[in-house]
Amino acid sequence: MTLDVHDNLYPQSLLSGAFAEPDLQSLLGRGRKRTYAKGEMIVSRGDEGSSIFLIEDGQVEVSVTSINGRKSVLNHMGPGEILGEIAVLDGGERSADAIAISSVSGVIVDRGTVRNFLKANPEACFALIEALCAKVRNASDMFETRAMITASARLARCLLRLGEKWGEAGPKGAIRITQPVSQSDLGEFAGIARENVNRTMQTWMHDGLVSIDNGCITLVDPVRLEAISED
User: Fold this and answer.
1) Nearest CA-CA partner of 226 in 137, 146, 177, 157
2) Which of 52, 126, 139, 169 has the maximum number of C-beta atoms within 10 A of its C-beta?
3) Which pTM does this prediction carry?
4) How many CB atoms lie within 10 A of CB 68?
5) pLDDT tens, residue by residue, 55-93
6) Can you tell me the distance from the alpha carbon of 50 to that of 96, in angstroms, rounded to the nearest whole number?
7) For 16-37, b where at least 16 C-beta lie within 10 A, e where not — what string?
């Protein structure tokens, strides 16, 4: 049984920019709909890479946990993004854990279907290469952030990256991060203790650099945050 996929279901998908709508619908139509509850594991590190997951709604946290139990958040993914393309391409194991941090829904497409689609549509390879390059850049940014000496520089860099990904323009150059991010999340992104996040955010709120409303952070003064990130 194939899935009935409606037009413009994935307007932000990397694949949608490279293919005619009928081709994209053909691929997704061979997938199956799946939903995950908040807190449910979507894939685990070490699992077989047997499919990709195209996110329709919700947020997914991608992370790795070291032997000593320290978790490092690699990315937050949302609607239109593709989860699992690395393992599905090389047939290897999943390289990270992915957990639903809200209710999540999307379409699962099996590895064999994806490979056959790529063989018939070479342009898709370039779209996936772009996705892989973005992941490499994200990893490079994470390593650079972790190498920074000061906690404030790390935190400023993380906020600016979140603003690039989830931000919407506000008055006077402000950037509102539309997705709620907890202080624990920020600590895991930046590799610093939650207490340091809380203390720094309180200082920046007092100084007019950031504000928080209903769990959403606004970068009130991105220019000053950029300067802090380069310290």
Assistant:
1) 157
2) 52
3) 0.61
4) 5
5) 889 989 888 887 777 777 778 888 878 888 777 777 788
6) 14
7) bebbeeebbbbbbebbeeeebe
